[in-house]
Amino acid sequence: MRLLLSLVTLMRPHQWLKNTFVFAGLMFSEAWNNGPLALTVLTAFAAFCCFSSLVYILNDWHDRAADARHPVKRLRPLASGAVQPAAALGLAAVLLALGLALAAGNLKLLVLLGMYVALNLAYSWRLKHVPVVDVTIIASGFMLRLLAGTLAVGIPPSRWLLLAGLFVALFLGFSKRKAESFHDEADQRAVLEHYPPALLDILMAVTMTASLMTYGLFAASADAQRQHGDRLFYTVPIVVFAMLRYAYQVHRGRGEDVSRDLLRDPWILLALVAWLVVFLGHRF
After folding, report:
1. Which CA distances in Å does 189 have to 128, 173, 180, 204?
2. Longest dimension (CA), the chain
3. pLDDT in tens for each of the 284 residues of the chain?
4. Which residues, other chains included, contact 21 with Cβ-Cβ below 8 Å and sequence gap of 6+?
5. Beta-carbon count within 10 A of 142 CB
6. SS (H, E, C) the chain
7. Predicted model pTM
8. Residue 113 phi, psi dihedral angles, 5° rounding
């Protein structure tokens, strides 16, 4: 049982929250009543969960010796010895096979998944040390998820949605770096040597402003008005509040783990519920 729990921890299932970007196209197209399409999107989400866990396992396997010397990362299953390298690679092989089976027959999804793995392995093993390139790759992972839930399943992606998604992903990436900068210097990522605090503040401000502008323009666009009426427009203040709240948390040293910290802030969770009520309220 202990080994099973360690293997589950190794997959980092809490990080699957990031894969919900796959559902954006289905949500904004309001096509969830289309059973076959919804099942295709759900399958794409499951495939991304398999491949994202695969990447985390390979990253931990590669960094296990360095992680064992880190005050926090030494508790990870591979670094602590709770999971042996052979067992981790075996689990990675199972996830690869399952992910390929889920994506079989969808060439666009397979290509996007392949790009996701290639970018993330390049990030984990080298490019995470290159400033700006590191965050660009993080943002690319979110964009690939967004495309998997639109282009790969036959939902035409909105240009405004893609732009808003890009800037939100960049904002989250630079927020992650800002939160990491609050660690003791000895525990910080090497790349933070190239990110002066003032620069991170500027990059966060620029990407947050761009996120809010593009989301607002998306919500006010003629296409959105035709499809959603004023409902999407009324969500703009909620999104503004949520992003300002998240920026506040980041400047308190939180936000390093987006999936964990989003779920721990009750005000951000309340904003999410409010967004769903406004956007979906007409259905009830």
Report:
1. 9, 14, 8, 18
2. 56
3. 788 888 888 999 988 988 999 998 888 888 888 889 999 999 999 999 999 999 999 988 988 888 788 777 788 888 888 889 899 999 999 999 999 999 998 999 999 999 999 999 999 888 888 999 999 999 999 999 999 999 888 888 888 888 999 999 999 999 999 988 887 766 677 888 889 999 999 999 999 999 999 999 999 988 888 888 889 999 999 999 999 999 999 998 887 777 777 778 899 999 999 999 998 876 54
4. 142, 145, 146, 149, 165
5. 21
6. CHHHHHHHHHHCHHHHHHHHHHHHHHHHHCCCCCHHHHHHHHHHHHHHHHHHHHHHHHHHHHCHHHHCCCCCHHHCHHHHCCCCHHHHHHHHHHHHHHHHHHHCCCHHHHHHHHHHHHHHHHHHHCHHHCCCHHHHHHHHHHHHHHHHCCHHHCCCCCHHHHHHHHHHHHHHHHHHHHHHCCCCHHHCCHHHHHCCHHHHHHHHHHHHHHHHHHHHHHHHCHHHHHHHCCHHHHCHHHHHHHHHHHHHHHCCCCCCCHHHHHHHCHHHHHHHHHHHHHHHHHHC
7. 0.88
8. -65, -40
Q: Which structure tokens are listed for 53?
A: 């866990």
Which residues, 6+ apart, have CB-to-CB distance to 84 below 8 Å?
none
Alpha carbons 218 and 102: distance in angstroms, whole number:
32
* Token pair listed for 217: 């323009």
